[in-house]
Amino acid sequence: GAVVSQHPSWVICKSGTSVKIECRSLDFQATTMFWYRQFPKQSLMLMATSNEGSKATYEQGVEKDKFLINHASLTLSTLTVTSAHPEDSSFYICSARNNLVYTEAFFGQGTRLTVV
Amino acid sequence: SQQGEEDPQALSIQEGENATMNCSYKTSINNLQWYRQNSGRGLVHLILIRSNEREKHSGRLRVTLDTSKKSSSLLITASRAADTASYFCATQSGNTPLVFGKGTRLSVIA
């Protein structure tokens, strides 16, 4: 299967600072990338969908000014958590898909964000 | 919105036993996928079953799909301690994002 690399795998930051998480498709072009958030012992909740070169579509209840998503190329999408607060501490996972080639989406390894 | 509902939420079995997890969903789908997640780690894709398929096998995994009941099951045969993980079903309609169920936490005791 195709490979999606997410970086960093974990990060600790202070309240009020911003954190950027990268998601790269290594061996395919990702026409669409998805960002999910997962709280402990819970399922993955979709935050937003981004198509290369266009603005991300955010799910209801997700603040677009707080979670900035940039999908500037077919192999890279970034999620920036701005002015992070302890309640933003969570596991963030990206997934990438090429709608023309693959039926399934491929997931990154996830990023554990802890805001102190 | 959450679509899939797995049951049971948690399952504890002895090594060598079979583990069965069920998933129900609400709307029509193109395919249903099962994923595995070890604690605090990323997702591993296990198997995909299309809406026109009823059963699929991959190694020790057997997945069934009943679109009339909007349900699927994942059977892991001859379980091993290394199968301990959370298992999620996820449904897809067209090019929409995957919608995940709540997951089943499986513990296989050696």
Description of the molecule:
The complex is a heterodimer of chains A (116) and B (110). Chain A is mostly beta strands and 116 residues long. Chain A has no helices and 11 strands. Chain A has strands spanning 4-7, 10-13, 19-25, 32-38, 44-51, 57-58, 67-73, 76-81, 90-97, 106-107, 111-115. The N and C termini of chain A lie far apart (37 Å). Chain B is built from no helices and 11 strands. Classes of the chains: A mainly beta (116), B mainly beta (110). The A-B interface holds A 1, 6, 32, 34, 36, 41-46, 49, 91, 93, 95, 99, 103-110, 112 and B 2, 31, 33, 35, 40-43, 45, 48, 88, 92, 95, 97-103, 105.
Topology, element by element:
The complex is a heterodimer of chains A (116) and B (110).
Chain A: E1 4-7, E2 10-13, E3 19-25, E4 32-38, E5 44-51, E6 57-58, E7 67-73, E8 76-81, E9 90-97, E10 106-107, E11 111-115
Parallel strand pairs in A: 2-11
Antiparallel strand pairs in A: 1-3, 3-8, 4-5, 4-9, 5-6, 7-8, 9-10, 9-11
Chain B: E1 5-7, E2 10-14, E3 19-24, E4 31-37, E5 43-50, E6 55-58, E7 61-66, E8 71-76, E9 85-92, E10 99-100, E11 104-109
Parallel strand pairs in B: 2-11
Antiparallel strand pairs in B: 1-3, 3-8, 4-5, 4-9, 6-7, 7-8, 9-10, 9-11
